[in-house]
């Protein structure tokens, strides 16, 4: 039934059979079996194509890569400029079903990257990128990490990570680019100097090590180190103390090195120092040609050793006259037939020069020379004029000699009175001379064909001219200022005997090797006065070879084109055999100084070592009116209203200053008549007021201080003065003070010890003590007294 019905009724159009496995008529069974699959496939295709009944299965999707990042931004903390941070990681994953091809990976400026992606990432795999920050500018910096690939089948697809970080400016500031220890005795240690390193940047500064390197690292040492291993925050600092202990003499150098990170750079500070042996010598008045009054090579005498119980008078060296000249000193001189000695040289008003063993092996001179002979004597008071008593009882050698250690020569000027007729006994006529002597330091023998008589004349209309020529008057001229030996030339200055007429100020120069006269200068060729005397202070010179003299009252007309320079500071040099005035300074009230006998020239020019600040080249001096001037050596200022050309004028109303002040370690020391010993701590070359006052004061004659120290920054430095109190025939007194702060109690004076143990000889005025290798030497009326560490 069913087969027939099927045969009689055709299937609806476009309608698939009801079943592929429907039952067939016997006659058709085989045919249908063979074509069954074909018919079914065609029916399905026909049905799908024509939208007929039935649904075809979906085609599988195409394979594609898919990129995915682990983060979309990275932030870096502060990083010092020029350094690179640690890495931060980014993972790049391929979540697709095909390989991810990477064509580029890059970062913008200030950032960098590295990766292990190898150009592609397999499906369901990942690779790692490491990003770093290297700031080139301070402040917030931004950038991008960019990956270019074929994600999702799109060529040139990009994946990005936002980057940001803070550039920290790492700026290091050193308190000094160099530390200079100047002179230090070998085997001894200097006072420490401090170097501070400051972080003025915006990031932390790490200091890994502090070390000393360079040429002579063993001569320097760092201590009190707060820097090694330190992390210095912005605006923070740390410090290192450095000392100098020279192993040998000469210039020594090294560097103080701060190893900083994260940059790993070295911040270096130059270290220099001068190693010196025991003091080789004191060759000139007030220790040096600048007349500073400082000996910075003293090892033995300190604030702890100069006390009543440890320090006192050791011995005296007897001589034949008053000693106004400062004793000079030389170490290790071989004296013929007597061996090697440290020697102290002494010149007297009785025209003698002595060489003594400086350590007191004997008080008998190693040698002694006298410039007196039959018919030759010293100059007496009455020879000058009635009532003359400035120097008593005679005048022979008044100024301090000068020594040339290279040639072994001592230069000294002696005054003599000589019979015109050697056999004369009554109503005799005399000639007066000043002679320049050059003595062998080992024997006292004359050298270079000496001595030579000092003579001079210049054109001029001065009050004692004859026919328009002013001639040097050996009787009326006093050779008072210490000699200057500079570059093979001996400079000699002359003043007056207490203003007894006629006189002028004279400056003369002689060749040190031949004793030939080189040049002559008269301070007042067309007037009178202008003495060069300075209470014995030497003629000064600076490191550039300029010569400085300070003149006393007399004629002045330099400001109107004249040639008279009284009451002035003169800066001079020799050109073509003639003295030339390079520059000058004159107080605005010079006329008053002249009228009232208020010499500017009662003190020499003190040449200060180079100073910090706007005026590095300074000169200091003072006069009888009590004022003290600081003057720019590069521009002395001439004469101006209210002394406007001076750098500083200190006018404290004190009495006269004789002999000048002293410089040491940034301090200026001075004591004026009737006033206290003062200490001015210089700041940028100026002397702030008020000064520090000592408890010591003195009337006329004021003292002339000197300082002894072991180096230039010695906290145990000692300031020394010798004072003659009361009248002319009283013992001199030696005083010692702490040079760092003179207001402290005195360390010592020679009246402290009982039973007059330390009493000195009878005093003379304007004494300058000589401190050398543990001993103090100074002159009196008939001896040189020697003080030191007691046995």
Primary descriptors:
6-stranded mixed sheet, 5-stranded mixed sheet, 791 residues, Immunoglobulin-like, 5% helix, single chain
Explain what this protein looks like in three dimensions:
- There is one protein chain.
- This protein is mostly beta strands.
- The protein has four domains: 2-50, no CATH class; 67-168, Immunoglobulin-like (Sandwich), CATH 2.60.40; 172-276, Immunoglobulin-like; 281-789, Quinoprotein alcohol dehydrogenase-like superfamily (Methanol Dehydrogenase, Chain A).
- 5% of the residues lie in helices and 41% in strands.
- It has four helices and 59 strands.
- Strands 2, 3, 5, 7, 9 and 10 form a six-stranded mixed beta sheet that branches.
- Strand 9 and strand 10 form a beta hairpin.
- The longest helix is centred in the first third of the chain and has 22 residues, at 29-50.
- The N and C termini lie far apart (159 Å).
